C-alpha cells in the first residue's frame, strides 16, 4: 500500500500535493512553506497531511527507502516529522511553543523538516498568534501542514500565509471501494457501512469491521423508532447516553492500556511491577490526559448518535416529501416507510430542528442527559397529531 491508500475521492487534492512535492524534489517553484488542508469530518485531512509528509521526507530515497519512510511516518517515529494533535477541546499554547522550538532545527536525515498540526481550528486566538510568528519567518527547509474543517476556522492572518488544499466529501461508492481494497470488507457490507456513515471514512471502517459498532447504531435507530410516550423518551435518552459511553470506551480502552504499558516500559518498570514514588507523577499525568480524552470521546460518541438520528429523520422526511433517492438507512426502508405514514413533514422538520438544538446545547455544556431528553420528546407524534396517540414504530 502507498501513502495515498487511505484517501478516497480526492484526486484533485492529491494531484496538487504531488505536483508540489515533485517541484520540491526538482528544486523548482511550486512548493511553499505552509499549507492548510480543509475538508469535512471523515474526508481524510490528516491522511493527506501524512501522505504529503511522506512524499517530502522521502524525496532523496530509493523505493526501499520510501517504504521505510512511510512506515516511520505511520508510526510517528521519523526524526524530521513533528506532529501536534490534541484530545482536548483546545490546543494548549505551551504545546504550540514546543513545536515552534522543534521547527527551528535543521532536518537531520531528510531534505525537509515537516510540522503537522491536526485540528488547527482548536487553537485560541492567542495560541494562533504564537503560531503566526513561525509562519511569518519560517526556516528555509521547514514545511508546515495545518488541518482544519474550513478556512474560516483560522485567523485571517494565518489564512493569508498558507496555501489551501480543499477536500470534498467522497461518494458512498468511493468509500465502499476503499473498505473493500484496504480492509478486505465484502462489497455489500462495505456499501452499507459507507452509506450509513454518510461517507465518513473512519466511521465507515468502524461499522464495517466492528459488530459492536453496528449493534450500537442499530439500537440507536430502534430506540428512536420505538418512542410512544414521554417516559419512553426519558428511558431512551438514558440508554443513548449509555451507548455513547460504551462507544467512547471501546475507542479509548485499548489505546489507554497501550499507552500505560509503553510509559512503564520507557521508565524501566516490569509489567505488574510497583511504580516508584518518584515516577508516579508521570503516570498521574498520563492518567489525567486519558481522562480528558475519555470526556471528549463521550462527547464524540453523543455527537455520532445525533448524526445517526439526523440521518434517520432526514430519510423519513424525504419519504414524506416523495423524493426518489437512496436513503442513508436504506437497509430499513420498510420501517421508515411505516414511520413516514404515521407523521407528516412538519413533524419531521421539527425533530430535525430539535436534534440541531441538542447539538448546540451539548456544545454549550448543557447536561447531555437533559439535552437528549428534551430532544427525544420532540419525536412524539402527538406533538404533530395530538389525537392520534400512535408511536412512529412500524407495526
From TrEMBL:
EC number annotated for this UniProt entry: 2.7.7.7
Alphabetical keyword list: Nucleotidyltransferase, Transferase
Entry keyword tRNA-binding: no
Recorded GO MF terms: DNA-directed DNA polymerase activity
Superkingdom, natural source: Bacteria
GO-annotated biological processes: DNA-templated DNA replication
Coiled coil: none
NCBIfam families, A to Z: PRK07940.1
Protein name: DNA polymerase III subunit delta
Organism encoding this protein: Ruicaihuangia caeni
Organism ancestry: Bacteria, Bacillati, Actinomycetota, Actinomycetes, Micrococcales
Amino acid at each position: 500500500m502507498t501513502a495515498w491508500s487511505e484517501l478516497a475521492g480526492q484526486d484533485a487534492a492529491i494531484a496538487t500535493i504531488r505536483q508540489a512535492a515533485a517541484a520540491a524534489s526538482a528544486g523548482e517553484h511550486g512548493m511553499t512553506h505552509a499549507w492548510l488542508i480543509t475538508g469535512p469530518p471523515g474526508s481524510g485531512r490528516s491522511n493527506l497531511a501524512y501522505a504529503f509528509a511522506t512524499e517530502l521526507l522521502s524525496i532523496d530515497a530509493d523505493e526501499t527507502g520510501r517504504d521505510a519512510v512511510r512506515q516511520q511516518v505511520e508510526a510517528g517515529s521519523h526524526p524530521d516529522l513533528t506532529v501536534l494533535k490534541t484530545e482536548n477541546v483546545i490546543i494548549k499554547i505551551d504545546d504550540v511553543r514546543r513545536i515552534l522550538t522543534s521547527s527551528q532545527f535543521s532536518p537531520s536525515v531528510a531534505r525537509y523538516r515537516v510540522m503537522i498540526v491536526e485540528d488547527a481550528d482548536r487553537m485560541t486566538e492567542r495560541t494562533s498568534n504564537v503560531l503566526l510568528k513561525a509562519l511569518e519567518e519560517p526556516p528555509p527547509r521547514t514545511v508546515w501542514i495545518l488541518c482544519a474543517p474550513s478556512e474560516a476556522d483560522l485567523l485571517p492572518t494565518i489564512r493569508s500565509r498558507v496555501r489551501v488544499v480543499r477536500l470534498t466529501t467522497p461518494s458512498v461508492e468511493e468509500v465502499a471501494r476503499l473498505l473493500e481494497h484496504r480492509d478486505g470488507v465484502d462489497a455489500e457490507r462495505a456499501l452499507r457501512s459507507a452509506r450509513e456513515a454518510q461517507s465518513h471514512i473512519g466511521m465507515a471502517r468502524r461499522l464495517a469491521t466492528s459488530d459492536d459498532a453496528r449493534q450500537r447504531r442499530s439500537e440507536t435507530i430502534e430506540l428512536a423508532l420505538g418512542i410512544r410516550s414521554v417516559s419512553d423518551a426519558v428511558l431512551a435518552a438514558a440508554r443513548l447516553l449509555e451507548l455513547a459511553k460504551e462507544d467512547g470506551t471501546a475507542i479509548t480502552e485499548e489505546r489507554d492500556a497501550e499507552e500505560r504499558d509503553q510509559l512503564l516500559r520507557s521508565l524501566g518498570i516490569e509489567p505488574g511491577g510497583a511504580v516508584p514514588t518518584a515516577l508516579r507523577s508521570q503516570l498521574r499525568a498520563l492518567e489525567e490526559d486519558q481522562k480528558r480524552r475519555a470526556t471528549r470521546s463521550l462527547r464524540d460518541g453523543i455527537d455520532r448518535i445525533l448524526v445517526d438520528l439526523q440521518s434517520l429523520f432526514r430519510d423519513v422526511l424525504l419519504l414524506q416529501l416523495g423524493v426518489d433517492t437512496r436513503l442513508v438507512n436504506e437497509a430499513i426502508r420498510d420501517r421508515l416507510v411505516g414511520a413516514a405514514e404515521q407523521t407528516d413533514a412538519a413533524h419531521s422538520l421539527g425533530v430535525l430542528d430539535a436534534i440541531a438544538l441538542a447539538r448546540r446545547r451539548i456544545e454549550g455544556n448543557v447536561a447531555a442527559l437533559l439535552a437528549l431528553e428534551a430532544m427525544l420528546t420532540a419525536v412524539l407524534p402527538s406533538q404533530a397529531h395530538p389525537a392520534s396517540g400512535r408511536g412512529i414504530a412500524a407495526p
